[in-house]
Amino acid sequence: MAYFALRIPVVMAVVLLGFAGFSFLLNFFGYVLVLFHVPAILFGVLACGFMIFLTCAGVKRRKEQTKVSRIFAATLSGLVLVFVLLLDGTAIHMAAFIYVLLTITALVCSMILFFTYVKNLAVQIGLGIAYVFVMFLALFFLMMMVGGSYLSPARPGEVMQTVYSPRTGHRAEIMSHSQGAVGGSAGVWVVPSRSHALLFVGELQGRPRRIYSGGLSEYRRMSLRFETEDRLYVYHARDRIAFERISRNRWVRE
Fold it and tell me: What is the pTM of this model?
């Protein structure tokens, strides 16, 4: 136990970096993992339990520290903020309450380990103020997101039009997102419609790409048409905007 406790911040950091790496790979290859409800709950409970266990063990063995563990503890809260940002639905999508539970647990545990292991008062004050400020901002935006819409992966809004490419390998959608009195926005998203895979814990889907955005009222004057599998036209009033697919899930405006 002592050997393990000496490296608790390192273990926590490795877990968070591993998750970040997995999310990066999903994003890099253009996928999003949509977790089923029950596996998402199990994942959230296990992840929270593991972080709480590490924190309790770290506080209990706080006298047995190393320089490496103190360094990792000082940067742990920053890694947790990266972990929180990666849980916003761009790579892994889950229910909002699981996201909130993981976020709060990770933030609290990281700060406890930070103040337990970092003994330098100047570092505690400097990094502590910075971390707390950024965490309040993260929680503020988290509450705004959860209080608003938390719908399908990274595409909040209503589908106004859907068209498919000639071989149905992609679909393009016009999405409108109303924000009440403050207005809203409209955008064009392209989704790989043939890249879905059913897994034990969820569904691996092609990540939607937003290729065009504008004002909320624009969708009434917009229409879409695929010329080929790799070429999409967005008609807007009297303009015609062409987009071409240059890689697996990347579209550029000509």
Answer: 0.67
